[in-house]
Design brief:
Length: 285
């Protein structure tokens, strides 16, 4: 089991399908996470929750248990819809990994050693170079691409432990990366560990980001489907409606339960427990 920094349990959060998700805005999230990096003990693992992850979580109890041990940040319009339906408001910020991680590295002014694991070899090396240009005061080390066997994992993690990283970025795709981190990464490997999905591909320029206007109106998912229709069409055009159906059903159950609690009749007065009454004392004349 990962040892999560004790500060992480105090993060402001709200539930999405019963999973606590951090509901800080950008500024507070930067301050909070950068403080976790400087904690002298423990480890914090950050994962991101979007509509696709929710579908995976509901189908895979082990994956859900893994996320419950992590500090989870909201990613995308799907979890905003879920929060609106079940909590009455959207999240203060869309803390998706593609934007949050590079911005966090800019926010952290103290030089850190940062390890990168995952993706294809060309994406890994390209991401390392892009990160070095983006935040040159940090030291970025490409540890290993994402193509290795379970038998090779111990030697890779021994190398990570020798490197004494402050931050470890892992890009293997959901749910593999979260489960792999939960199983193998320990406090001696890095104080802060972040599962970053396709971030290395974006940083290396292998997969283009959507135009700024498309990102502003929260439809980058559609742009990505047009770029990779064979891989992503099913996730969004099938998984999206499945996610919405689950969210509406979950919200209906929650609201029905609250309504029952509100209209539940109170027990008659004679059936209610009575408080003990102290005997009256005579007042001396």
């Amino acid at each position: 089991m990962n040892i999560v920094s004790s500060m992480a349990v105090f993060s402001s959060n709200r539930p999405v399908l019963g999973l606590p998700v951090c509901d800080l805005d950008w500024a507070d999230a930067f301050m909070f996470v950068s403080a976790l990096v400087d904690m002298p003990i423990g480890q914090t693992v950050i994962s991101f929750l979007n509509a696709h992850n929710c579908n995976v979580m509901l189908n895979d109890p082990a994956y859900r248990e893994t996320l419950e041990r992590h500090l989870v940040l909201p990613d995308g319009i799907g979890v905003d819809i879920a929060s609106m339906l079940t909590n009455g408001s959207r999240f203060p910020a869309n803390l998706n990994g593609t934007d949050f991680v590079p911005a966090l590295l800019t926010y952290i002014a103290t030089p850190k050693r940062i390890g990168l694991i995952g993706a294809r070899p060309e994406a890994l090396s390209g991401a390392r170079d892009a990160f070095a240009r983006h935040a040159p005061w940090h030291e970025f080390v490409a540890v290993h691409d994402g193509f290795f066997t379970e038998e090779e994992t111990p030697s890779i993690m021994a190398d990570v432990a020798r490197q004494k990283f402050d931050i470890l970025l892992v890009a293997m795709g959901t749910p593999k990366q979260e489960i792999w981190v939960d199983r193998y990464v320990r406090p001696e490997h890095a104080r802060l560990v972040i599962s970053v999905g396709a971030l290395f591909d974006f940083m290396a320029g292998i997969v283009p980001r959507a135009p700024r206007l498309v990102r502003k109106y929260r439809v980058e998912w559609l742009y990505r489907v047009l770029q990779e229709p064979r891989r992503l069409a099913g996730r969004y055009f099938v998984g999206g409606p499945v996610f919405l159906g689950r969210i509406f059903a979950h919200a209906a159950r929650l609201h029905a339960g609250r309504l029952v609690d509100r209209v539940k009749p109170k027990p008659p007065m004679q059936d209610r427990p009575r408080l003990p009454v102290s005997p009256r004392r005579k007042v001396p004349s």
